[in-house]
Automatic annotation (TrEMBL):
Gene that encodes the chain: LOC120263386
GO molecular function list: identical protein binding; N2-acetyl-L-ornithine:2-oxoglutarate 5-aminotransferase activity; pyridoxal phosphate binding
Taxonomic source organism: Dioscorea cayennensis subsp. rotundata (White Guinea yam)
Protein name as it appears in the record: acetylornithine transaminase
Pfam families: Aminotran_3 (PF00202)
SUPFAM superfamilies given in the database record: PLP-dependent transferases
Cofactor entry: pyridoxal 5'-phosphate
């Protein structure tokens, strides 16, 4: 372990123009736009040019800096994202660079996506290799990377079968449909087979109409009512309530995150998950583990549920699986899969050769001997460091999490701290009701970088005193 004192005595002030040599090969945003505009203007005839074609002198031709990008975004996007004023241009390892060349230490990993960091050379090689071979084919046909990835996931988990999709919410939509179809298949003579679902407080399962119905925060659900009916929310961890609410002939499935991410970094207990397993067995409901955020090595275990020794009937994955390319996966048992027929579900893009080849490169790395143990070790060290550096701070209520999914609960909103850290060159996220700092760095982060993150965080903590008064 590198010396903490040596690191702390170093300057943590972000420096400018720290682009790595590889970044010099990446064309600036402005030059990409200018090149495109030039091609356009040489290919179109005069009359078309007036009505629809981008002129290289127009405001769309190129962006000069972050201010212009932010202003333009404000004029052209549907306002779904409350973004922070930061335009990122490139990344390497755990570092990100904005358009002005300022360096940031990335403790967000694209919200638990970039487990291998940015531009991992083996991942880039795999993507380029596959892009040069075959990027997309319809699921009408077979492709080798897709079958290889499915086989790999099955060999590494409880599951017998896989369905690929393109995101976490889609992986959960597939799980919802599989649960409904399984129950229909199991109760062929019943007019009303079990169709209802159990979900939990602080849960987040996505934003499509099924997954959002399972998501606890009303803010995400109520504007879109009626969402999928038949969901009962019970308190995360409440064993007695779970026993009462999961009902035979009514409950189709129970959706639970073994470690909740978006909701505020809450970990289940073994007793809670084991009770859910037992009650599902007794009632015929399926147990679905949403490991979209906590799965694939983030806890120091390949699957978060390994920590508890409890196995689900369905597990959903997404975020880190393809190292930053869009993918979702719904893994299940033969028993559930037997209820699914041709045409019951599908997707144009899902499980294409490019994303699947990239995902195999990710699995190759995180399944290397010692990799997961290093996540555990770094996670423990990081929590220790945070505890040490924040000790005595009146706003820090709890430091929790497992492996490299870490939460710091505050008694005030975390956003002033997030802003101050960003100014100081550290990117962090919030979770829960905005009062939890969420730290989900690339899993390849070094101990030295964790020390730097803890140091910046601690130095920025006084900003919370100003907001508290
Ligand atoms: C546990 C969990 N499930 C599902 C999702 C939805 O994933 P996506 O945004 O890829 O649809 C998320 C996203 O944060 C998540 O954390």
């Amino acid at each position: 372990m590198s010396s903490l004192n040596a690191i702390l005595s170093n300057s943590i002030t972000p420096t400018t123009n720290l682009h790595s040599p590889t970044n010099s090969k990446i064309p600036k945003v402005s030059s990409i736009h200018l090149q495109c505009a030039r091609v356009h203007s040489s290919l179109v005839s005069e009359p078309e040019k007036k009505s629809s074609v981008v002129d290289s002198s127009s405001s769309k031709a190129g962006f000069l800096g972050s201010k212009e990008v932010i202003e333009t975004e404000g004029n052209v996007f549907v306002r779904t994202y409350a973004r922070v004023p930061l335009v990122l241009e490139s990344g390497k390892g755990c570092k990100l660079y904005d358009v002005d060349g300022k360096e940031y230490l990335d403790m967000t990993a694209g919200i638990a996506v970039n487990s291998l960091g940015h531009c991992d050379p083996d991942w880039v090689k795999a993507v380029v290799e596959q892009a040069n071979t075959l990027t997309h084919v319809s699921n009408v046909y077979y492709s080798i990377p897709q079958v290889k990835l499915a086989k790999r996931l099955i060999e590494s988990s409880f599951a017998d079968r896989v369905f690929f999709s393109n995101s976490g919410t889609e992986a959960n939509e597939a799980a919802i449909k599989f649960a409904r179809k399984y129950q229909r298949h199991l109760h062929p003579d019943e007019k009303q087979p079990p169709t209802e679902f159990i979900s939990f407080t602080h849960s987040f399962h996505g934003r499509t109409m099924g997954s959002v119905a399972l998501t606890s925060k009303e803010h995400y659900r109520l504007p879109f009512d009626p969402v999928m009916p038949g969901v009962t929310f019970i308190e995360y961890g409440n064993i007695e309530e779970a026993k009462k609410s999961i009902v035979a002939r009514r409950t189709a499935a129970v959706f639970v995150e073994p470690i909740q991410g978006e909701g505020g970094i809450y970990s289940a207990t073994k007793e809670f998950l084991q009770t859910l397993r037992n009650v599902c067995n007794d009632t015929g409901a399926l147990l679905v583990f949403d490991e979209v955020q906590c799965g694939l090595g983030r806890t120091g275990y390949l699957w978060a549920h390994e920590v508890y020794g409890v196995t689900p009937d369905i597990m959903t994955l997404a975020k880190p699986l393809a190292g930053g390319l869009p993918i979702g996966a719904t893994l299940t048992t033969e028993r559930v899969a037997a209820a699914i027929n041709f045409g019951d579900h599908g997707s144009t893009f899902a499980g294409g050769p490019l994303v699947c080849h990239a995902a195999i490169a990710v699995l190759d790395k995180i399944q290397k001997p010692g990799f997961l143990a290093s996540v555990t070790k770094k996670g423990l060290y990081f929590k220790e460091l945070l505890a040490q550096k924040t000790e005595g701070n009146q706003h820090v209520k709890e430091i929790r999490g497992l492996g490299l999914i870490v939460g710091i609960e505050l008694d005030v909103p975390a956003s002033p701290l997030v802003d101050a850290c960003r100014e100081a060159g550290l990117l962090i996220l919030t979770a829960g009701n905005g009062n939890v700092v969420r730290l989900v760095p690339p899993l390849i982060i070094s101990e030295q970088e964790l020390e730097q993150a803890a140091e910046v965080l601690a130095k920025c903590l006084p900003v919370l005193d100003q907001t508290a008064t």
